[in-house]
Every structure is written in structure tokens, then in C-alpha cells.
Write a structure and sequence with these properties.
Glycoprotein, Type 4 Pilin, 133 residues, alpha+beta, single chain, elongated, 3 helices
Length: 133
């Protein structure tokens, strides 16, 4: 039995390698990876917005022009992953705005197209209090 399995493993490996090199499978994998980035970024902008919201209570919230340095100081990566935490999954800086009309803070990722103010932007929105923002 084990001899048969040992003989089959190289054939399975070759067949798997051939399938993995097909353009259709590569496209499906790329699409899956992009979807994973979107989900990860959705979670991250939500977490960042919550962090900024919490900092509004003691007036340590960042100004939009210093948002990148705020994120580098205050965000931690998990599992020993080294990356610039001020950048989204596509390498674009996160953006912070305070919408005074709606009394919301908005953390935005430019999304997969790497351009702000387009349909694929990813946003985390949180209310803020009246502490001078």
C-alpha cells in the first residue's frame, strides 16, 4: 500500500504543477488574493476608525496631516509581520477626514485601484464627540 502511494505522489505533484500553471487557475488565484486584501482592509479601516474614535475622548486624536505618523506609532502588526501600518494592502497611505456636518471621522483606503474618491474606496466611519474637532 505504501509503495503504491509513494509511486503516485510524483504523478500527483506533476499534475498539480501543470494545473497551477494554467492561466485560468492563475486568474482565479489572483482574484481570490485581491478579495482577501479587500476583506483585510475593511477590517483594518474599521479598527483604525475605532482607535481614532477612542482617542477623541482624551483629545489625543490625530490631525489628518499627521495621520501616517500616528498610525506608525499606534498600530501594531500581528504574528511578527513587518510592514508600514500607515499603508493599506496596496501600498497607499490611509486617509483621515473629519466630517463636521455628520459628526463622523472617516478612515479611507484608496482600494484596489489605488485612487481615492472612486467606487472601490474602503471606509471605516465612527462618530466623534464635540471636543474641538
Amino acid at each position: 500500500m505504501i509503495d503504491a502511494i509513494v509511486k503516485i505522489i510524483p504523478m500527483i505533484t506533476v499534475a498539480g504543477g501543470a494545473a497551477a500553471s494554467s492561466p485560468n487557475l492563475k486568474a482565479q488565484i489572483a482574484k481570490l488574493m485581491e478579495s482577501t486584501k479587500v476583506v483585510a482592509t475593511q477590517q483594518e479601516v474599521s479598527d483604525i476608525a475605532k482607535m481614532v474614535h477612542m482617542d477623541t475622548f482624551d483629545s489625543t486624536h490625530p490631525r489628518p496631516e499627521e495621520f501616517s505618523s500616528y498610525l506608525r506609532r499606534n498600530m501594531r502588526t500581528t504574528n511578527g509581520i513587518q510592514r508600514d501600518t500607515s499603508l493599506d494592502q496596496w501600498g497607499v497611505s490611509y486617509r483621515l477626514t473629519y466630517d463636521r456636518t455628520k459628526r463622523e471621522l472617516v478612515v479611507t483606503s484608496a482600494g484596489p485601484d489605488k485612487r481615492y474618491d472612486t467606487a472601490d474606496d474602503i471606509k471605516g466611519i465612527y462618530p466623534y464627540s464635540s471636543i474641538g474637532i
